[in-house]
Amino acid sequence: MDAIEAIRKRRSVRNFTDEAIPKPDLKTIVDAGRLAATGSNRQPWDFIVVTDRTMISEFTVSGAWISKAGAVIVVVMDPSSRWWVEDGAAAIENVLLASTALGYGSCWVEGDAIPHEEYYKSLLGIPSEKRVMALLPIGVAVETPAPLKKPLENVLHWEKY
Ligand SMILES: Cc1cc2nc3c(=O)[nH]c(=O)nc-3n(C[C@H](O)[C@H](O)[C@H](O)COP(=O)(O)O)c2cc1C
Question: What is the model's pTM?
Answer without folding.
Answer: 0.96
